[in-house]
Amino acid sequence: MTERGAWWREGIFYQIYPRSFQDSDGDGVGDLTGIIHRLPYLLTLGVDAIWLSPIFTSPMADFGYDIADYTGIDPLFGTMADFDALVKAAHDGGLKVILDLVPNHTSDQHPWFQEARRARDDPRRDWYIWRDPAADGGPPNNWLSEFGGSAWQFDAATGQYYYHAFLAQQPDLNWRNPQVRAAIHNVMRFWLRKGVDGFRVDVIWHLIKDAEFRDNPANPDYHGGRPPHEQIISRYSADQPEVHEVITAMRAVMDEFDDRVLIGEIYLPLERLIAYYGKDLGGAHLPFNFALLSAPWHARDIEKIIADYEAALPHGAWPNWVLGNHDRPRLASRVGAEQARVAAMLLLTLRGTPTLYYGDEIGMHQVAISPEQVRDPFEKNVPGVGVGRDGCRTPMQWSALPQAGFTQATPWLPLADDFTHENVVNLTADRRSILNLTRALIRLRKAHRVLVTGSYRPVAAQGDLLLYRREGDGEMLTIALNLGDQPVSIATGGSGLDGEILLSTWLDRDGERVAGTLDLRGNEGVVIGRVM
Ligand code: NOJ
Ligand code: MG
Hints:
By secondary structure, this protein is an alpha/beta fold.
């Protein structure tokens, strides 16, 4: 398949947080066999690829983002046979499988780090980032861990500090060392040979740090109530120019195999983000576009985000959009349950690959976590400023059965208290539910190729209205989204908006003619079809 029609351009991604999707062995934690049981659900939903957050051997200090063996499956999730069975079952159903690659850091329990910390002259030493103490014995510079405190951990046995951008149990690998690169490349090949269709690369913009370890500048905009690492700007600790050559080399490994995708996790302003497509698009196929995760939910702001992104994309680069993930508050709580439906229509009608976060399709909200229920190390280290990620990682709500059908045991995180109503079984039966809306949107995207391949054209609008067109291949669709809760009425005469409603977020207007005026209810979005 040529890149133009590649599956990762045409398809819809679905992120699974494996701990919370489906438990099969009664330990209260989701696992691979559980995911296999739920593949039929994903197939009826209509998504094309699943991305699994880490399933590798891990002491779980950061729930799998601290890896002790890159080519092992953690027993909590199952066995390698379970993994192979999952890939086979997914592929049999036509679903691609994307794994999480975490190359920036390992667990402190990884044998590489255990060896590295043995002695200053250990051959493994330079696989990590070691520095002498500052003159006063303190950390080598002012870099801060994203999870609180200094990013440097003193190792008394060898008298040096090691660097960790996240937890002290997650020492950063030294990507300036060619042996590290080769080792991770081999990890990639291991999974690619097993038939894995791609990777989402964790904190890819962190891989290279300043060669001189210069102090980061203070952030003049920092204010209390924000996580402490925001007191400095990570000018020297991340997004270094040399990172691009590291990514090019990763991409070359992907290109040894047919038809695989490299996705980069990147939280950077737009102008920095797009650099991750790489020179001549030889970097990440899809640098994750997180602009909507923190967007003020107003039509003009969103319109500008889309316009800026479309304008900034390098020639030939493929866009992508994300509304939620395992690190950010749930969409339905951010924008409200009603707007979550409008947001779903936005995500699935924009130009570019959409990534759905598990549970957003049933409108799962951020679950309140009491202090004694906190599991997230970020919240434990930096309590009280709202950084906790447990509330967006709660178990999938399958049914009204005990524990929502997620487990027979006590789930590792509490279930949302509304699960007896808000669950897959009920929402499937409810014709107008957000779940059936999501299914309808996915069907629409598949039935109208223009939603995948057509151009994006903004249409001028005021107030809470967001208007745009998708155009190409002899078809034109207009998308009209009301981001407010008041009705709006637009004169369509002469503006080319007339046509037929193909889908409303309320699922009750299919086939309605639009001629002269378009009336939208509060919190309603519609897709209007007009064959050119
Ligand atoms: C980004 C991941 O999405 C997050 O969950 C994790 O804690 C950090 N990277 C560290 O790996
Ligand atoms: Mg389990």
